[in-house]
Specification:
With 107 residues, the chain is mostly helical. It has one domain. Helix content is 73%, strand content 0%. Helix 4 (43-60) packs antiparallel against helix 5 (70-102). The protein is elongated. 3% of the residues are buried.
Amino acid sequence: MERKLVGEILQATTMSTDPDISLSSYDEDQGSKLIRKVKEAPFVPIGMAGFAAIVAYGLYKLKSRGNTKMSVHLIHMRVAAQGFVVGAMTIGMGYSMYREYWAKPKP
């Protein structure tokens, strides 16, 4: 009885070796996966690029900040970068909702 139960548990936990099962997410290379993800959510890379641009601009302006304290300069750059990312996410969500509910072809 106990041996049969252990066998059933092992059989349930082992992966299938059926060659007909295709795992498409594992068949992709990095480039095609990135392209697919960008097509699904185009505003994510825009938000990331904007964040990187604002951080680069903040680092460039770090030396010529004048009398502004370092902490105030860093807070302003952080708020600008976060604002850009949140804006890109909001526009992306609106775009996704538009595609899903209004631009979807009628069956």
